[in-house]
Design brief:
The chain has 264 residues and is of the alpha/beta class. The protein is built from eight helices and ten strands. The chain has a single domain (5-130, 191-263), classed as Rossmann fold (3-Layer(aba) Sandwich). It has helices spanning 42-54, 78-91, 104-115, 132-140, 143-152, 170-176, 213-222, 243-263; strands at 5-10, 16-22, 28-32, 58-61, 97-102, 120-126, 154-157, 166-169, 200-205, 228-233. The strands form two sheets. An eight-stranded mixed β-sheet has the order 1-2-4-3-5-6-9-10, with helices on both faces.
């Protein structure tokens, strides 16, 4: 069995990006973690174990300001993290890739597929959160926090996932509008939808307090590919990191790869 390699690559604007990669045969799998998450989470670890078991290529990494990569989280933007992900796709992976994106990583995976359609052959999106910064600003920040953003450029948002609050910057909120896929500033997709023509599978919990399942249904309708599948998990939360959820993710990935092989 080939060991998973640990290394850094130079990212955009001098950022240092921490990566892990295991070589293998067949289409590769690239995991894109969520907002304030990293490549050592339960989904990434489950995919690494799957890669070791199946001999498939697998790549995972940390965005700048996350995990073992350089940079400050509060200085990050959707555009910067998209550039990080594309740098890993271009420098580390070879051949066609299935992108597995969790939450914000689902948004970035969609943007990567639009930017590199010749490299991305399928998407597996877990509670995808395109345009989440708009809902974050509108629905979760208080009036006082929004005023603090306007005056000071940053505010602290309590998180149910960490003891320490997360810094949210005005730059993050404003810059993200350039990358919207579903909102008013919909990244050039307009009324024509999201111009992807590849298999897309989405896993979505119906008890997700961060991404309501109705929004994921709307996302499925916006993607122009005729091969879009949405699996709703009745008791699933946003993280979908319990053992049955991880098994469902791996099974969906196996099925997706089988379908790709049948089409080849």
């Amino acid at each position: 069995m080939i060991d998973e390699q640990h290394f850094d690559i130079p990212g955009p604007d001098g950022r240092r990006l921490a990566c892990r990669h295991r070589q293998g045969s067949g289409p590769g799998v690239l995991f894109c973690p969520g907002f304030h998450s990293d490549m050592l989470g339960s989904k990434a670890e489950a995919l690494a174990a799957w890669s070791a078991r199946t001999g498939r290529p697998f790549t995972r990494f940390d965005y700048s300001g996350h995990g073992a990569s350089s940079g400050e989280f509060a200085e990050g933007t959707i555009g910067a993290w998209l550039a990080d992900a594309l740098a890993v796709l271009d420098a580390v992976t070879r051949g066609p890739q299935v992108l597995v994106g969790s939450s914000m990583g689902g948004w970035l995976s969609l943007l990567m597929a639009l930017a590199r359609p010749e490299r991305v052959c399928a998407l597996l999106l877990i509670a995808p959160a395109p345009d989440f910064t708009d809902r974050l600003y509108r629905d979760r920040l208080t009036a006082a926090q929004r005023q603090q953003l306007d005056c000071e450029g940053v505010c602290l948002l309590p998180s149910e996932y960490d003891e320490a609050p997360w810094p949210i910057s005005r730059q993050l909120i404003d810059e993200a509008r350039q990358h919207f896929l579903c909102g008013e500033a919909s990244g050039g997709t307009g009324s024509e939808g999201i111009a992807l023509d590849m298999p897309v599978v989405m896993l979505q919990g119906q008890r997700d307090d961060s991404v309501p399942w109705q929004l994921t249904l709307e996302l499925a309708e916006r993607i122009r590919s005729p091969d879009v599948e949405l699996q709703l998990i009745k008791n699933g939360d946003h993280r979908l990191s319990e053992a049955p959820d991880l098994q469902r993710m791996v099974s969906a990935l196996d099925n997706l790869l089988e379908r790709l092989a049948a089409r080849a």
